[in-house]
Amino acid sequence: MTASFDLNPQNLLSTSEPATAMEIKLRRRGRISSAMRYSVLLIFGLIMLYPLIWLIGASFKTNSEIFASPSFWPKDPTLSGYIKGWETSTPYTFGRFFWNTFLIITPKVIGTAISCTLVAYGFARFDFPGKRILFMTVIATLLLPNVVTRIPQYLLFRDIGWLDSFLPLWVPSAVAGDAFFVFMLIQFLRAIPRDMEEAARVDGANTLQTLFYIVVPMLMPAIVSVCLFQFMWTMNDFLGPLIYLSSIDKYPVSLALKLSIDTTEAFDWNQILAMSVLALAPSLTVFFIAQKYFIEGISTGGVKG
Amino acid sequence: MAELQLKSVEKTYGSGFKAVHGIDLTVGEGEFMVLVGPSGCAKSTTLRMIAGLETITGGEIRIGDRVVNDIVPGKRGIAMVFQNYALYPHMKVKNNLSFGLRLKRRPKAEIDDATQDVSKVLEIEELLERLPKQLSGGQAQRVAVGRALIKHPEVFLFDEPLSNLDAKLRAYMRVRITDLHKRLKAEGRPATVVYVTHDQVEAMTMGDRICVMREGHIMQVADPATLYERPANAFVAGFIGMPEMNIVDAVLMTNRVPHITIGDQTIQVDEGLGERLSETTGPVKFGIRPQHLELCPPGTENALSGTVTTVEFLGHEINLHIGIHGQIFVAVVPSDHLTAIPKRGDAVALKPIGHRIHLFDRYSEENISLAGL
């Protein structure tokens, strides 16, 4: 028996010919398999998302309904959770706590972006005495658990007299204290060819001009990622503010949420949930706005390899 | 425009590796100098030292009457075109061109004029609003040249600028760049150029003079014809010319009839050459270009007999690889003149054209056949 194979691409690609029984079978099998894959993904996706959906639903429920039914859809939706939650049991509204969070995050993110870029640029592009040891130190601090440094840091800031101010939250980040970000930017910089920087130097740019006009624009996707991570981590940071801030008027959102649990005997869950939803909003918004920078590979195109 | 001088320039890296061994080179005002050599010969390092992107560990570099050893690249009066073009990816073409001028805070009108001027010369006017990623290789190349041209530098530096282009575009850009150099000269603003390449075709066609380098040493500096006709040593002889020159061990005898022995075969040498080398007798290296070997029937007098091992048909000519005493000679034979194309295994003879023979010292590899010329 001989089998003949038609390798003419035109025939292989043509769809006008009637499909054979084999082809129909294969197509059907493909459809069934993708239907199964998608249903599995959908089910697990929903399981992961359900707490979030429930949270949003429950924030519109009354206190008594929250634990009565597992469904996320409120029977008689109410905004009272939002209204009362916003007022809080303190002399301040939640707006104050959002403002505090903003006051902590903004200088911290800006400081991180600037300081980490400078340090990463130094490590990635220059040779200086002790570079290896210093770089190893940076990596070593990366591996150090955060908790280990809390007490010495607390004592240090107490002695300087920075307790109950935002300074202990800002300053370490503004001097590139987050080794992870430095490391991330170094890795990114290493992948960018030096030619453009050399071209800039030949064009007459000094080191800082090269950094500002050439390196930073190419590094933008990485810097945006750094800012995004720092934003979300600071937004979620509970321990830092808890240790260093003692007056309620300086509390950020993360502490304020806990505050409403502390002060009342019977918890007003719907208020807590409502404020949690609001607390989620900035992170989500910022993430979706900045998302396109991840996709945009600005560093490609200038160099052909 | 200015003269560029390198005086015993050295480069030793921190690891102790010496890349450049005290080279001396003068590039005249308006001259097109090509640095050529195999990879690792430090030609790019030399160029980068001239640019100031690499420090020098010994010697002196002068541009015009200034010693520039410790001057930053931006103040040396140089402009450089990089192998990868190195266009700033986030800037439009016009901003790429004017970046240097903008850093110097020149007036806007002057910058605009200069950008227009350069884009006209390089025919990139319609590309000014584009980003580098929207350019083809050839266009990006022209923008990179434009970025150098706009600064009116004293010395232009090119670092293998054409190696990323396809063969056709490379040939085209080669002509464009040499034309540009000639045009600038004709317009009374001659450009001193140092051009690095590993491609000998670029070197031979573009350079006023060529500097052949090897492992951080200069092997010869000369114009293309001299380099081809009178290579100073076996390295230059082998490096310049396609296919490579045939260089084999031989013995030169100058008593009575001067002759060369290769294996057990003997060929007489030119009387002139014999007289000039009358003092030298003994082991040498015999060199002859593939184009200077005549194909003869086996047994011809003063020819080397051997067997064809490979035949490369190129259309207008044929490269014949011929085994002679275990050594392979390549001969380029015009195909028009042949009645029948030799086949693998055919016995043939090769007759070197007498005055085209080169003899090199067996040990120093200096070209001794040039002695007395």
UniProtKB/TrEMBL annotation, chain A:
Cited InterPro entries: MetI-like, MetI-like_sf
GO cellular component terms, semicolon-separated: plasma membrane
Keyword line: Cell membrane, Membrane, Transmembrane, Transmembrane helix, Transport
Chief place where the protein resides: membrane
Subcellular location: Cell membrane
Pfam families per the UniProt record, alphabetical: BPD_transp_1
Membrane topology: Multi-pass membrane protein
CDD domains in the cross-refs: TM_PBP2
Top-rank lineage group of the source organism: Bacteria
Transmembrane parts of this sequence: 35-57, 97-121, 133-157, 169-189, 210-233, 272-290
GO biological process per UniProt: transmembrane transport
Record bears the keyword Transport: yes
KW Iron (keyword) present: no
Sequence ranges assigned to domain ABC transmembrane type-1 in this UniProt record: 98-290
Family assignment from sequence similarity: Belongs to the binding-protein-dependent transport system permease family.
Listed PANTHER family: ABC TRANSPORTER PERMEASE PROTEIN MG189-RELATED-RELATED (PTHR43744), ABC TRANSPORTER PERMEASE PROTEIN YESQ-RELATED (PTHR43744:SF6)
Protein name: Oligogalacturonide transport system permease protein
Organism the protein comes from: Roseibium marinum
Higher taxonomy: Bacteria, Pseudomonadati, Pseudomonadota, Alphaproteobacteria, Hyphomicrobiales
UniProtKB/TrEMBL annotation, chain B:
InterPro entries named in the record: AAA+_ATPase, ABC_transporter-like_ATP-bd, ABC_transporter-like_CS, ABC_transpr_MalK/UgpC-like, Mo/tungstate-bd_C_term_dom, NA-bd_OB-fold, P-loop_NTPase, Transp-assoc_OB_typ2
Keywords of the record: ATP-binding, Nucleotide-binding, Transport
Membrane topology: Peripheral membrane protein
Domain ABC transporter: 4-240
GO CC annotation: ATP-binding cassette (ABC) transporter complex, substrate-binding subunit-containing; maltose transport complex
Compartments (UniProt record): Cell inner membrane
GO molecular function: ABC-type maltose transporter activity; ATP binding; ATP hydrolysis activity
Highest taxon of source: Bacteria
SMART domains (UniProt xref): AAA
Family according to the record: Belongs to the ABC transporter superfamily.
UniProt xrefs under PANTHER family: MALTODEXTRIN IMPORT ATP-BINDING PROTEIN MSMX (PTHR43875), MALTOSE_MALTODEXTRIN IMPORT ATP-BINDING PROTEIN MALK (PTHR43875:SF3)
Protein name: Oligogalacturonide transport system ATP-binding protein
